[in-house]
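Session log. Operator J.P. requested a structure for one protein chain; no other inputs attached. Running the standard single-chain path with token output.
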Amino acid sequence: MLAWLNPSPAERRLLTAARGGGATPWLIAIMSFAMVIVAAAGLALANAAASVGAAAEHRYSVVAPGGSDVTALAKALASMPGVANIEAVPEARMRGTLARWLGPEAANGNLPVPAMIHFDLSPGSDPSAVARRVHTIAPAATVNAHGSVARPLLRSLDAVQGLALALVLLLAGATAAAIVLAARGALDTHRSTIEVMHGIGATDLQVTHLFQRKIALEALLGSVGGAAIAGLIILALIAGASFVEDLGGGRMLSAVDIVLLALLPIALTLLATWVARTAVLSALRRTL
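Structure written below.
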């Protein structure tokens, strides 16, 4: 089935003579570069969304008015089943946060500062039971789920991931269209040669293999070259984008993501080869 990959000496001479459309490898390199960059961005966002979602899914906060007994609230939470990782936010940290907006007035002792306690709730536990227990100590306190706060962000990240996938598919479609044009242009350029080959007994499939091999090699060269440049840029971004690592829990791309990105140029080459074969064979059977 893959005999067309090993041309005879005569076919090699025809392949050399059939060089035209030298822009094809460059075009495929650009498409491959863009596809890898867009796919890497989508995978990085997926990892970030997964990390943020996992961190916020079972995380809750108690916010009580200033003057509330934080110690009593923390003890009440610690006594409840399913509650873990209780963290009371010190008043100094709260005032430091308020200082960003209030300036020196945030240090004023007459300014009431709300008490805040973070805790994790195990799956299956009832948040309303926790809220009732908290309200017995601080009736005006509220229990907030981090997941509800992070949900709009996660929806936005999901939308951007969908956009990245759509862009990758659009780039693949554009590459296929460009391959069709390149294949038809090559056929028009070498129509007289094809007629001679038909005259000496060559079949449509043999002629198709000639052009299919040419475009496959050009696609492989262009896709690997474009992906390699994209890989270098991604490595530079990973090394310098600490904010992405913080958002994604210290991981921008996993080993599986890297394998998927490495398979993109191979997939692009296979797509270009299949499109070239289909376009050339269809054109030969229709016009010659």
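Operator note: Residues 17-21 have pLDDT under 50 and may be disordered.
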